[in-house]
């Protein structure tokens, strides 16, 4: 996804599709609010009623969707609101919710993101290293730019400037995203030493990364940052959308 010249990043792209597109929605079991599927987290319900995070929304069987942050989820677990909502949705099924569901969900969402980054690196779409990224950015080859959470300000600013130059977007707000992962976590996930800066050079890869990244940022309460990552979350075909609180099979 190339950023149009002097056109700032659009939040609708980061959230899941082009401007004017109708994005698939799901209904949060806790708030009753409908949001884009990419912003909600699916909870898989086993036949025995065990509630587990389904970060990729692919697990078979029953499921429910939540669109709240980890902090709000943990409150809903503590005060029984989540159990009550799921009990009403799945009448007759015993609901078993572990107290660490919020932590498990964050771990699963983080794993989904790091796995995707690893796949893109093996496919040759992910660049690492300041000089390689700067060169590609100035050449107009970068479509997404990310940084470790413990990075300083100099590196991201210099790479963002190179990106803007390459895109002919100087003076715009085009910049990368600070990932919810520090350099140690990124280094372990990607099997490289001291991973601080990352860039994607393929539009389809940027779309694939945007999905797990946006979902994780939303769960962490960092929604505003998803609009600045320069990636697009590939939209699911409209006919696959369901506006249900829960579903009966994985997607």
Topology:
Layout: H1 11-15, E1 25-27, E2 34-36, E3 41-45, E4 51-54, E5 62-66, H2 70-78, H3 81-89, H4 101-122, E6 126-128, H5 130-138, E7 144-147, H6 154-167, E8 177-178, H7 183-190, E9 197-200, H8 203-219, H9 223-226, E10 246-247
Parallel strand pairs: 7-8
Antiparallel strand pairs: 1-2, 3-4, 3-5, 5-10, 6-9, 7-9
Helix pairs in contact: 2-4, 4-8, 5-6
What does this molecule look like?
It contains 9 helices and 10 strands. The protein is α+β, with helices and mostly antiparallel strands and 251 residues long. The chain has a 4-stranded antiparallel sheet. Strands 6-9-7-8 form a 4-stranded mixed sheet, with helices on both faces. The longest helix is centred in the middle third of the chain and has 22 residues, at 101-122. Mean pLDDT is 84; it is low at 1-20 and 228-243.
- The strand order across the widest sheet is 4-3-5-10
CATH fold-level label of the largest domain:
60s Ribosomal Protein L30, Chain: A
Q: Any idea what the CATH superfamily of the largest domain is called? A: Ribosomal protein L30/S12
For the record, the count of structural domains works out to 2
Total beta-strand segments: 10
> Which residues form runs of ≥5 with pLDDT under 50?
1-20, 228-243
Order of helices and strands: HEEEEEHHHEHEHEHEHHE
Q: Residue share in helices?
A: 25-40%
Compute the number of helices. Answer: 9
């Amino acid at each position: 996804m190339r950023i149009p010249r002097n056109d700032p990043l659009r939040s609708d792209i980061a959230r899941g599709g082009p401007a004017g597109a109708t994005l698939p929605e799901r209904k949060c079991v806790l708030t009753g609010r409908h949001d884009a599927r990419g912003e909600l987290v699916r909870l898989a319900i086993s036949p025995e009623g065990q509630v587990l995070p389904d970060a990729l929304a692919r697990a078979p069987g029953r499921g429910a969707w939540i669109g709240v942050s980890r902090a709000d989820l943990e409150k809903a677990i503590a005060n029984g609101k989540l159990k009550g909502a799921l009990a009403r949705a799945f009448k007759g099924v015993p609901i078993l919710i572990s107290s660490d569901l919020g932590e498990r969900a964050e771990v699963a969402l983080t794993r989904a993101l790091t796995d995707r980054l690893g796949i893109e690196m093996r496919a040759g779409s992910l660049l690492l290293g300041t000089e390689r990224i700067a060169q590609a950015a100035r050449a107009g080859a970068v479509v997404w730019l990310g940084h470790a959470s413990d990075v300083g300000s100099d590196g991201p600013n210099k790479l963002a400037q190179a990106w803007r130059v390459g895109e002919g977007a100087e003076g715009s707000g085009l910049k990368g995203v600070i990932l919810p992962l520090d350099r140690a976590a990124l280094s372990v996930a990607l099997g490289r030493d001291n991973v601080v800066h990352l860039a994607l050079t393929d539009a389809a890869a940027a779309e694939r990364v945007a999905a797990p990244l946006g979902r994780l940022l939303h769960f962490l309460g960092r929604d505003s940052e998803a609009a600045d990552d320069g990636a697009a979350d590939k939209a699911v075909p409209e006919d696959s959308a369901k506006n249900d609180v829960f579903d009966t099979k994985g997607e």
